[in-house]
Specification:
The protein is α+β, with helices and mostly antiparallel strands. It has a domain at 76-197 and 232-380 and 430-497. Helices cover 43% and strands 19% of the residues. It contains 15 helices and 13 strands. Strands 1, 2, 3, 4, 5, 6, 7, 8, 9, 10, 11, 12 and 13 form a 13-stranded antiparallel beta sheet that branches.
């Protein structure tokens, strides 16, 4: 009897759950409490005043005020959330705070060009890990958090058998689960940035190995190769790990936090190695260079050459833009020599995608020379993960019991997803909150308008839903840099009013 090989089944990934608590009638606990209070107040007025019509009219007015709390707009935000955003936007424009000017002729302290907005208070420190590697560490005083950037060389899936790829995906899941078991890790942000290759790295390497007396023909061949390298694209990958200050001493003294972080970093290197990612910490100079390059794309050749030669790029106090401004269209951000548009993910990949669902979005694209995709993972501790999946499951059960028609089918799918997550968590899998920020940068407004349809196509091809960061492009740009700016931690809108 001849044995026949069977095809390996294609492995897909799903089970993304929107963490939204449903209490009754599809309402969140807060929304249900508000409408219940309105009903009780209306009934009390009827008994006290004896006027049913007046009491019902008062209750109707309160109910109208309640509606924006439960109805979401096209941005996925509640009416009150959009109202507060518009109010803040108008206040910024009225006071001129949407415009940032720095440098020697500005009113900035010392004539420096610090980062704008929510990153203005940040500081950059450096220390050594237990392996002797120098690492830059950004401090966010308002949240008592420290962030380290890891420069990553990604092996990729090309040429690997599918079972090896599946194993790498599983190793990445183990890495995320491990993050939840470390109490002081607040988030991990993975950034894949595609940039036009300036050729400066190759030029510096060639100059370093070229002897002055070498044959002219050999030098000409190398020069042609360097020129050819400047016509392609370069992919830059990094992982940002954000740590919470675990003790009062670490909140006050960054070096106390650096000692703790330096001992933890080698463990993260080894964990990432299992995912075929070679990670090493970025120095304070490289940290500042990442930010400077994002704000001033025209400086990329000089920055690339300095990094290749091991030269210092700039201080953290000079890493920000000289000029930055949120445009009047509310979806454009101008900064030094670049102009950007930022999208934020509103729903994860739909259906049952494979591990290559984001390949098109992450790969270099000649129509969008400069783009940056940052995926932020905020891990749950094992105890919080168990409570969260149990709460999601109960909310899904409540939705099934109250839904009708098409809503009932949607509720059934949500129930299946939450139950799958519940079982997976019980088997030891980790739970993370996931978000994504996508940034495209151009040299002019016309170029940005031209690449907008291409970006929308890439986003659609990734099976995700993303919308421009309406009225908060500056903050979203900082969040999309993947340097430790966690947007939810800086929100000025109360949680009860958010969508």
């Amino acid at each position: 009897m001849t044995a026949q090989d069977t095809e390996r089944p294609v492995r897909t990934y799903a089970g993304f759950v929107d963490e939204r608590r449903t209490y009754a009638f599809g309402l969140t606990p807060f929304s249900f409490a508000v409408i219940a209070a309105i009903v009780l107040v209306t009934l009390a007025l009827m008994f006290i005043t004896g006027s049913a019509l007046g009491s019902l009219g008062f209750g109707a007015v309160l109910a109208l005020l309640w509606v924006p709390l439960v109805v979401k707009g096209p941005q996925g935000k509640t009416g009150y959330e959009m109202l507060l955003l518009r109010r803040q936007w108008r206040r910024q424009r009225r006071t001129g705070r949407h415009i940032y000017r720095a440098g020697q002729l500005s009113n900035q302290a010392g004539g420096r060009s610090r980062l704008p907005g929510i990153a203005a208070e940040t500081e950059l420190w450096w220390a050594l890990d237990t392996n002797g590697h120098r690492f830059g560490m950004m401090r966010m005083p308002s949240t008592h958090q420290y962030t380290v950037l890891l420069r990553c060389r990604i092996g990729g899936a090309a040429g690997n058998d599918q079972h090896i790829v599946d194993g790498l995906v599983g190793s990445w899941a183990n890495f995320l689960a491990m993050l939840g078991q470390v109490p002081n890790i607040a988030a991990a942000a993975v950034t894949i940035e595609t940039l036009p290759d300036t050729g400066e790295r190759a030029r510096a390497n060639v100059e370093a190995i070229t002897h002055p007396d070498s044959p002219a023909t050999a030098r000409q061949i190398l020069a042609e190769r360097v020129a050819a390298s400047a016509t392609g694209f370069r992919v830059h990958g990094r992982v940002a790990i954000t740590f919470d200050a675990a003790t009062p001493a670490q909140r006050k003294d960054p070096m106390a936090a650096a000692e703790m972080i330096g001992a933890q970093l080698p463990v993260l290197y080894s964990q990432l190695a299992h995912t075929d990612v070679t990670a090493l910490p970025m120095s304070d100079s490289e940290y500042a260079a990442v930010v400077r390059r994002a704000f001033d794309p025209a400086a990329e050749p000089d920055i690339e050459r300095a990094l290749t030669l091991g030269e210092y790029v700039c201080d953290w106090a000079d890493a920000g833009p000289i000029t930055a401004e949120e445009d009047v269209d509310k979806v454009t951000y101008r900064h030094d020599s670049g102009i950007s548009r930022v999208w934020t993910m509103t729903s994860p990949p739909s259906g049952f995608p494979t591990e290559r669902v984001l390949a098109g979005l992450l790969s270099p694209n000649s129509q969008v020379p400069r783009k940056r995709v940052t995926e932020i993972f905020r891990p749950y501790s094992p105890a919080d993960a168990a409570k969260t999946v149990e709460g999601d499951f109960k909310s899904a059960v409540a939705a099934v019991n109250t839904a009708r028609g098409i809503g009932s089918a949607t509720a059934d799918i949500a129930l299946e997803s939450t139950n799958t997550a519940r079982v997976a968590e019980a088997r030891g899998h980790g739970l993370v909150s996931m978000s994504m920020v996508i940034t495209a940068t151009a040299e002019s407004a016309g170029e940005l308008t031209a690449l907008d349809p291409e970006m929308r196509g890439l986003i659609s091809g990734a099976r995700i839903t993303a919308r421009p960061a309406y009225m908060y492009q500056a903050a979203a740009f900082l969040g999309g840099l993947g340097i430790g700016v966690l947007l939810p931690d800086h929100s000025t809108i109360p949680t009860s009013l958010r969508g």
